[in-house]
Amino acid sequence: MGLLNFCRKVDAPTGVTPQLEAFLDGYSIEVMPRTAEKVEDFTTLLPKGTRVYVAHIEGTPIEDMVATAKRLANDGYPVMPHFPARIIKDSAMLENWIAMYQGEAGVDQALLLAGGVTKPHGDFDSSMQLLENGAFDRAGFKRLHVAGHPEGNRDIDPKGGTAMVDEALRWKQTFSETTDADMALATQFAFEAGPIIEWADSLKAAGITIPIHIGIAGPAKLQTMIKFAIACGVGPSLKVLQKRAKDVTKLLLPFEPTQVLTELAAHKAANPDSNIEKVHFFPLGGIKTNATWAIEHGGSSAAPMTPS
After folding, report:
1. What's the pLDDT score for residue 275?
2. What is the pLDDT of residues 96-110, one digit of tens each?
3. Domain spans of the chain?
4. 257: closest CA among 235, 234, 225, 232?
5. Which label site among 115, 157, 158, 183 has the fewest CB atoms less than 10 Å from its CB?
6. Which helix (H) or strand (E) is 170 found in, with range?
7. Has domain 3-296 been given CATH number 3.20.20.220?
8. Looking at the predicted structure, is the pLDDT value of residue 184 above 70?
9. Which residues contact 159 (CB under 8 A, 6 or more apart)?
10. How many CA atoms are closer than 13 Å to the CA of 300, on its beta-carbon side?
11. Rounded distance, CA 141 to CA 137, Å?
12. What integer pLDDT is reported at residue 306 of this predicted model?
């Protein structure tokens, strides 16, 4: 399927609802340098204008990150690289990374997060410290996303609950109100719509109005999905996978996000003012597999709007 196919209306696949098609409009997806290398041509897979996050795993050279960002930018995709606070040693390294991304790939947006390491490598411990630093503002970045955790985060709240996570969100809400930054919460993936909706509603009730780009795990073998879910600290919704895993005949079959996305799409259609605004895919079963699933479920049946 060529790039032009993304720019015209095509017949929706069987089973695709207008609600799901609308909900997938303008979705984003995450890649890493090693996974991006396996894709010959992104323009045959992703709609024009798709925001592509470039995930930074500890040990990945910044040069590889920037090269991936440059390739995607040259293909016409807005690129949002990760900036993991705990592996950035100091302000000089932060400013150097920003300069490299801007100089090579014209990047003007970023996902700021604490990062997956326990002990900071230097001066930064959290995304809030990166925001306070002011380097992104000085560099003229237009959009800054931060992490959201629908099922809590044991790294932040090791004893359970969401007290520290909630405090951090209140701080980020104030930051969004007192600066010119366009912000969104890009969340960890989960497998049940109900708890996601309850979490989003609770944020809105607490005055947290930062738009939510809800994390969704793309299609993958059930064994692969369970492995990533445990490693990433997915909470109670992991039981959805565990229940399916009891049927050994399904262990090697792909687990698809159809149900959770259909339910979230129906909620969004019934509640258009919901703070759940976009879908962000984690392509756990591969970029091509995820992109193909999105195509088959209405994610490319119309030219997407500019990502928000």
Report:
1. 97
2. 999 999 999 999 999
3. 3-296
4. 225
5. 158
6. helix 163-178
7. yes
8. yes
9. none
10. 23
11. 6
12. 43
Q: For residue 280, what are its two tokens?
A: 């962000």
C-alpha angle 109/56/98, rounded to 5°? 40
Between 62-74 and 91-105, two packed helices, what is the crossing angle to 10 degrees?
30
User: Residue 185 pairs with which residues in a beta bridge?
Assistant: 146, 212
* Rounded Cα distance, 17 and 13, in Å: 9
Q: What is the pLDDT of residue 161?
A: 57
Question: 31 - beta bridge partners?
Answer: 54
CA distance 172 to 210: 9
Helix then strand count (H, E) for the chain reads 12, 10
Q: State which H helix or E strand residue 222 sits in.
A: helix 222-231
- pTM, two decimals, is 0.87
> How many CA atoms lie within 13 Å of 17's alpha carbon, on the beta-carbon side?
13
Phi, psi for residue 240 in degrees, rounded to 5: -60, -45
Asked if 149 contacts 176 with a C-beta cutoff of 8 angstroms, the reply is: no
Cα–Cα distance, 82 to 57 (Å, whole number): 9
Both tokens of 231, joined, read: 């490693």
Plot region of 128 (φ>0 → left; ψ -120 to 50 → alpha; else → beta): alpha
Q: Take residue 166 and report the two structure tokens written for it.
A: 């909630």
Side-chain-side CA neighbours of 284 within 13 Å: the count stands at 25
Find, among 222, 218, 224, the residue nearest to 291 by Cα.
218
Strand boundaries in 154-231, DSSP class E: 182-187, 212-217, 220-221
Q: Which residues contact 128 (CB under 8 A, 6 or more apart)?
A: 168, 171, 172, 175
What is the C-alpha to C-alpha distance for residues 172 and 131, in angstroms, rounded to an integer?
9
Per-residue tokens: 78: 């807005």
Cβ pair 233, 155 in contact under 8 A: yes
Distance CA 223, CA 253 (A): 9
Contacts of 199 (CB under 8 A, 6+ apart): 150, 151
